[in-house]
Design goal:
This protein is of the alpha+beta class. It has seven domains: about 1-40; about 45-120, Peptidase S8 propeptide/proteinase inhibitor I9 (Alpha-Beta Plaits, 2-Layer Sandwich); about 125-540, Peptidase S8/S53 domain (Rossmann fold, 3-Layer(aba) Sandwich); about 540-625, Immunoglobulin-like (Sandwich); about 630-700, Immunoglobulins (Immunoglobulin-like), CATH 2.60.40.10; about 720-805, Immunoglobulin-like; about 810-880, Macroglobulin (MG2) domain (Immunoglobulin-like, Sandwich). It contains 13 helices and 53 strands. The strands form 14 sheets. Strands 7-8-6-9-11-12-13 form a seven-stranded parallel beta sheet. Strands 25, 27, 28, 30, 31 and 32 form a six-stranded mixed beta sheet that branches. A hairpin with a 5-residue loop joins β52 and β53. α7 runs parallel beside α10 (about 345-365). The longest helix is centred in the N-terminal third of the chain and has 28 residues, at about 15-45.
Amino acid sequence: MSNLFLKFILFIQVRRAPVLRMVLWSLSLFAGNCALFAQTQLMEKCSPALSQAVQQREDTPLRLALVVADLSVFRQWAGREGLVVLADYPPANIILLEDRSAHFWDKTLPRPDVLFADFGYTTAREELTVPGHNLFTNNIRLTHTLWPDLDGSGVTVSIKEFRFDSTDIDITNRYLPMAKASPTLTVHAGTMATLAAGAGNSDAAGRGVARGSRLLSSNFAGLLPDTGADYEQFQVRVQNHSYGLDIENYYGAGAVAYDQTTQDHPGLLHVFSAGNIGTTAPVSGYYANVAGFANLTGNFKMAKNAVVVGAVDSFGVVTSYSSRGPAFDGRTKPDLVAFGQGGTSEAAALVSGAAAVVQQAFYEKYGQWPASEATRAILIGSTDDTGAPGPDFESGFGNLNLKKAIDLIRHHSIQTASVGPGEIQSFFVELPDNVHEFCATLTWNDPPSLPNAPRALVNDLDLELIAPDGRVWQPGVLRTAPHRDSLLLPARPGRDSINNTEQIRLDRPDGGFYELRVSGYLLPDGVRPFALAAHWDTLQFFQWTSPEGATLTSGETALLSWQTDLVTDPGQLSWKPVGHLNWETIDSAVDPRMGYLRWAVPHTFTAAQVRMRIGALEFTTDTFLISPVLRLRVGFNCPDSVLLRWNAAGPDATYRLWALGNRYLEPMLHATDTSLILKKSNFPQLHFAVSAATLNGNVEGVTSGAPNIAAQGVGCYINNLLALLDDDGESIRLTLDLGSIYGVNRVFFEKQIGGDWQIIRESPPPGLQVQHTDLLPQQGANTYRARLTMDNGGTLTSEPVVVYVAGARNFLVFPNPVRPGQTFSLLANTEDEAPKFLLCDPLGRPVLEQAVENFKTDLIIPALAPGVYGWRVAGASGKVLSA
């Protein structure tokens, strides 16, 4: 064959030289096209960011996340190649390893079992730290008031990021220790844990959404899910992810992994913060350079079965920094929004806590824990529409409303079922004649798509609503073209072929039986489970959301808020103390559509109510308390007893003392005074709080902060004795701070003179602070102490304090004489930058030299012969300052 080929080439060379050039050019072109085709195939296996980096062909270290066909086979090969494996997630065949770019390009990426490659990350960025706390915006406080037993009991909430402080008293005895928790402790992680599930022991701001849930800290190193064994062992049903990366608009390894977890653990719900770069434009992908859209932070937020949460302010308006959708393939993101004045981290934590409460409510009604698709349907199906009507890429499907979510479970409709290819499942809902808004939400958990797929959805279900008269409604569908104008357009009814959440909202529908149809449009995996939630509000609806369950601070501005559909007439807002007949006007012409009003709360202590009158209708709040903020202080902390005191709430107030029990603050005793002395044998706790109530005890306010009595810097009556040399250097001012004067007979200031303590002042206690000035301090050390004599005959003495006085010469050496090896001290009151102390023998020769850096410098006499030695202090220039 080779000889024939050689003869053919020679023949062409002789007879057809131009033909030879054409053949060789064709072969070269074919080879080049083959190489280009192979290179293109390799690039298609890389994420956009990685494909740009590897094309540079520089041999640099890479940390990679790979999706492979067979994890065990690939691991064996990686071991032979000397690659360092950092982590893996076997359910999705994902491996995190270290490689070099040349080896990756030439050997790793061309392997046919490498399906996808991306940069691997060992950690992410926590989203913005949270400065605020608000449980009113999403009707969380109202839910606590209406259903105090709904607190997330039975649910484990995992906080996946750095570690929170498990000793925080708002988490006491609800923390589950996990070996894989991060070694790094951060305030951000503690804030997320508190918002999701804080008990409110420390103070009112420490109360989270689900104070009954268990808490787990999981390290987000590697950014992969926890193992299935961990999820099962700790019974994790909600995992919060308040962190992000850069904008990554593609379906990558993170999205694959988290979508896989919901296939393996159907009850597990992942909650991600959307990100805090809402005005940023992505630099790559389908939505490149579209400012203010498609800027979710991290490809794991492209997962279909997770809830991605944006942020609103206290008025339900989406914040400018809250990251927007759509997802890379046009899917609606975020899924919903929640209060997040300090960032979407806060919003996600509130939704995680809300999910725990929803799961508990579902369990109590149906006797089983919900699948995560049902939790999603309830949370999304009970939101308040905000922004543009229907879904949008700023607020998703709406603003979290926990009260409506519980209403949906208890009084409305939640269906879980399955549908096969071409099948239709029908459900019927009877609506009354006075419905203001009807909302139906369909959700299903979808298996992972192939990484880098242009569209993530695998199984396509459809939702339709059929009215009694035969009219048909379809879900709201958004335009997804990569143009700002298109992305801002409101949703319009249509068939949704990209989302695994579909929602139909209907304003003022007629009463009657409505049919909800769920059909299996495209189901390559066969039968697919789903959840369908239906909720409706009635006309002439009015709901107070604040101050329900709150204590309003007297003399400060409070936010009164409500929800209503009564928007045609102005409202009249008024208040009155309970027991009074007359209402006092707050505002005579309130626009009900505003939903809130700021009220300057009167300076008073009283139980009160607020009333809204709209036309002939009146809506009155539950009774709440107006009170100043209570602040508990420690008066003294003795070995056998402790004095607690607090400011008075009002002349008619009574008080209740609380102490930290096994998990929560527990009531101890009632008091009418503003101080208590507790015997530690009866009250061994370290944390106490106090609350105020009306004289009859019918209305009680929130508890004060609960400080650790051992960490307040308060001693047994004597908090602190301070002695300061006055600026003129000729007198010493003594200040004694007392925690209490209860039982104190007399106060003594004493000075040590000649080895004895001599009284320099004696008086009854004039108050919690006692002062005295010593006008005749001596050169050198002046030592003082305070002594208390008690009514019971006891005596308390402070620790001694020492003040050194250099005298008129500004320099002093003491003691004098001094023995070899003994320490002596130099007091130097000088502004020279680098003074030196020199000790000289009788001939003037230095035998000791030392820099003087402080007002008091301690020196040790070297082994010298007995005799008289001279000293001097010289400045940086050599000038003698003193001798």
